[in-house]
UniProtKB/TrEMBL annotation:
Residues 34-63 are annotated as: Disordered. The chain crosses the membrane at residues 155-173. The lineage of its organism: Eukaryota, Viridiplantae, Streptophyta, Embryophyta, Tracheophyta. Its main location: membrane. It is found in: Membrane. This is Syntaxin-81. Belongs to the syntaxin family. It is a single-pass type IV membrane protein. GO terms for cellular component: endoplasmic reticulum; SNARE complex. GO terms for biological process: protein transport; retrograde vesicle-mediated transport, Golgi to endoplasmic reticulum.
Length: 174
């Protein structure tokens, strides 16, 4: 009976542990991943508008815009590469989170099955003890029956022996 109580307690503690672990994991993910900002397409449009405007007047001391445009393009390419890399990392983290949740669910399912098995084992143990007691009582009954049979056989032999000698005595006497 104590095994059943302990296994029920283990099941409740395991379920609580899984719940707290899931909450802690979700909080860690929320802290680690910053919120995504929507992409701004306005920036690229403004670059195109300025490139299409030929009426700009350059000052004689002003730097040509071509190196700035190349620099801007390099920064944009680097930003896109970082976005792709971060998106890949986010997907990997979400996949890992999904796997962890699945593992937690499987762990919970396994602990539930273990609890059921513990209950079945306890029931089998009680039935085995009862069967053992029944076999012991049956053996006692058999030994008593054998003893009764042997004592009745002895009594019958003694009775036949006395009866035989009584007849012999009566035959000799007459």
């Amino acid at each position: 009976m104590q095994v059943l109580i302990l296994s029920e307690r283990l099941h409740s503690v395991t379920a609580l542990f899984d719940l707290l672990k899931g909450i802690r994991f979700q909080e860690a993910i929320n802290r680690a991943t910053p919120r995504r900002k929507p992409r701004q397409l306005v920036k690229s449009n403004s670059v195109d508008v300025s490139a299409n405007n030929p009426s700009e007047i350059r000052e004689p001391g002003e730097l040509p815009t071509e190196p700035l445009r190349v620099q801007q393009q390099l920064l944009d390419d680097e930003t896109r590469a970082l976005q792709v890399e971060l998106t890949g990392l986010l997907d990997a983290v979400q996949e890992t989170e999904t796997k962890m949740v699945e593992m937690s669910a499987l762990n919970h399912l396994m602990s539930t099955h273990i609890l059921k098995q513990a209950q079945q084992i306890e029931l089998l143990y009680e039935e085995a003890v009862e069967a053992t007691n029944n076999v012991e009582m049956g053996n006692k009954e058999l030994s008593q029956a054998i003893q009764r049979n042997s004592s009745s056989r002895t009594f019958l032999l003694l009775f036949l022996f006395v009866l035989t000698f009584s007849i012999l005595f009566l035959d000799w006497y007459s």
